[in-house]
Amino acid sequence: MVEKKPEDEKNVFWGSEVEKNLRIAFDGLPNDVPVLLFTEGEGKDVLNGAARELLRNFNGLSKRIVLSEFDLNSEEARKRNVTSAPTIIFDPDRYCVRYLGVPYGEESRTLVAMILLIGFRTGNMSEQSRRVIQKLDAVREIKVFVSPTCPYCPDQAVNGVKAAIERPDVVSLEIIDIQSNQEMANRYSAFSVPQTFANDILIARGAQSEELFAASVQKLEQQSVFIPETEAEVIETDVVIVGGGPAGLAAGIYTVRSGLGTAVIERGALGGQVATTPIVENYPGFARVPGKTLVDILVSHALEYVQIFQGEEVVEIRPGAPIEVLTSRRRFLAKALVLATGANYKKLGVPGEMQFMGRGVSYCATCDGPLFKDKKVIVVGGGNSAVTEALHLHNIGVETVLVHRRNSLRAQEHLAKNIFSNNIEVLWDSEVVEIRGRERVDEVVLRNNRTGEVHGYPVQGVFVSIGYEPSVELAGALGLELSAEGFIKHDSHHRTNIAGIYSAGDVEGGYKQIVTAMGQGTEAALSVFEDISHPYWSANRDEPGDVLRI
Ligand code: NAP
User: pLDDT value at position 387?
Assistant: First the structure.
């Protein structure tokens, strides 16, 4: 065993600002965080080398992080039943928390959160989640499958860490990077991330709010609704914005700058669809920027102004004065509400799609693409998303074929021409009529809609990229009027048919670009400000607004 001492010299691994903030955060920890790293093949293997470099750099940040390194063939590895490398064990005298793989990329957020939570020895769960986890009366062995390119994964992994710290007597956790543990991902048929198992039962596909995670772990099955107990915390504010994508975050910046108290509530990852867009080339001011980088810039700007309640799901909205917004964790009372709930992936609706979801059928190339390296996949669709996803998969070494139901692409010419210059095969006039397989996808059945010919086409993955459907569950439950296409009806001030409730972004339909969503969020915020200071529904208003001009 080699015990590492924190290094004094400047650490060049981090950007200077990130390094400074991490040092401050870790030095403030009240307890040491013992970290045991198991690797093999000193200097030879990329993943093991990356794990060593990453953890040695973390070790160098603070004396609170106490790193011990072992070989996979050591006595310590046998004693702790470590069978793969790299494996990282955290504070094993107190908790049962392991990371199988390298927590880099998006997963570095999980690593930072783990160190902080373990250093404070707190799960830092909400009161609602804690009550559920405290009810556990039997062992829960949790496995969360993640990938370093998945922006949704850290939230779910950290949910697991919190539960393992809250109930170390019954909860154990393994966070498993699918790229370095493909055999295990195969065994669990986990071909999308995040996927969560408890006692080997699949309890969640995708990231959950902390409360839904806790309930799923307790009940050993996926839960979709969590209603908080009556004494949930109450927050009074001027404006509640539901949705933390470009529209919601832009709206938040503008309402706060107008002097209105504002809460943004986002159940999943911030940034919406942009967070998983590999490269954005049409955001003015940035010629080429990874979607996630754009989101990080936007979120840090928004956080300078607005409080964001992330990982919290809105379960009910009660119109009135005030408007009541009930989440999985608390109750908000507000004068105005902006619904910027965005859109969900559209499904193909063919046999096999639901059965193989997460087992070869995917809706996110950024998240799941690395699992299909050197394998053959199809991307279905002919729009900007399908073309962007096909190019991304091709660039990371996935054998990619685009399947489109017409004989020309809908995507912008600038994007479309890259398909041909990269020699990506396109199957024209082709529709997927079925997805087949045993444990996972083995083939799709394609029909040529010109000739009527139907044939099986062997592939290991199907990336569905055929557009989005507006997320209008909350709007529907509220009684908001929707257009024939299912979008929220609104006037030119983004007001809906219910006083005090506004809409913005993809949930309104229209062009569905990042900049247009931000513009709609901005307009909605300015309308909220004008209406709060001079309400359009008040009888004394001089000039009534144009209501429902659609
Ligand atoms: P989209 O533009 O609506 O394109 C959807 C594609 O899927 C179309 O080619 C459509 O075929 C096909 N499709 C729809 N239903 C299908 C089905 N059941 N079976 C087979 N194919 C089906 O959607 P998107 O590409 O996801 O883009 C959504 C919005 O985001 C657009 O406004 C787009 O411009 C924007 N976006 C922009 C960028 C960018 O600018 N870089 C990137 C991504 C998205 P048809 O052509 O036959 O209708």
Answer: 96
